[in-house]
Amino acid sequence: MIYDTISNLEKYCPLVPQLKTVITSINKENFTAKDIGEYKTRSKNIRYSISHAQSPIKNSLFEMHKEETIVQIILEGKELLALTWREHAKGLPYDKDHDVVLLEGDPTAVIHAEKGHFIIFFPGEPFKEGLGENYTKAIFKLRD
Question: Where are the transmembrane segments (predicted)?
Answer without folding.
Answer: none
